[in-house]
Amino acid sequence: MSRPTTHVVTGATGMLGSAFVLDLLARTDDPVWCLVRAPTQQQAQARLHTQLVRTAQEQDRSPDLIRRDRLRAVPGDITDLSAVATALRFPPGRVLLWHSAASLAYEPGYSTQTHRANVVGTEQIVTLAQEHDAELVHISTAYVAGRRRGLQAETLPPSDQPVNNQYERTKVAAERLVAASGLTWRILRPSAVVADSRTLRTSAFSGLYDLATRVARFRRQYEKRHGDRLFGQPSRLCGDGRGEINLVPLDHVVEHGVRAGLHGAGGTVYHLTNSTAPSAQEMYDVVFTRAGLPAPVFVDDPRDLDALDRLLANALAFHLPYTCSPKTFDNTHTTGLTGASATAFAAPRPVIGELLDRHQPRPRPLTRVRSTLDVR
Fold it and tell me: Whole-model pTM?
């Protein structure tokens, strides 16, 4: 007879963490505890409930999943778990700790914040798991691959992995902490998460959605001064438009991730990626034309850029590096659990356009900078 399981989820008020909570509630009969950043238990419960309702609506899930008898919010911060140690006393049985919380800030000015959340926070979670003999499911990103090109294996990155930004650097460090922990661990690596594949709705504001926002803002900023140039000829972007941008729907990430977390082999990395991802050219074409601009042209040599192109490159400074080192992702470990066809999400230009049409933005928090790879 299997032991009863308690699931403990961090980052449960984020896009990805909340979807994991709902899927665990749907697929198991187990209690789900959520560590929520809030000063009191009541405020933690309210914040968690608000996010779960929003995510359930976006995914067309029944709100009946959000049952208080199975769901517990624990107020606390992953960077200082000592303050909530007494509240984190789990019932006997198997404890499965799903670590989704992270800072997605990528700009150099946020490096201390990002390191504290993603590295120090992971150290704290590892310690918590060790104290309770828990299994750890660590939610990382496929883009720990950094600047590497070509096919990326489901293996740990080297400690000196060349990366594009501070966010990737901290996720590399966090993976290596998990792997060295002595715990039974599984690492889940989503790529660039978009909305649910069935509804195409989300209120997330990173990734594809952040790119669209930045391009539209660029047009507004420069159309009066540079309208003839802006509308009269394509902008040039330095990168490789033929490489894929691995857009993966939220429901695929969560369904496959929960299966890997519950049933996958320990000590294993799982790529939660799209086996039929669109090219950078396809994605950028849709984003630019929706902003009323000509589809861009990708070039190899930065000397081919004019002054306005360079301004645009600054505006898209986070996004463009992902077009400069094209890569694909091996997902053998994942498809061993799901089957190969389950990882496919066709995203031609019309689907990318519909993803943007159905975007339901909400006000951004003023204290956080979001990256294009939103896995929280």
Answer: 0.94
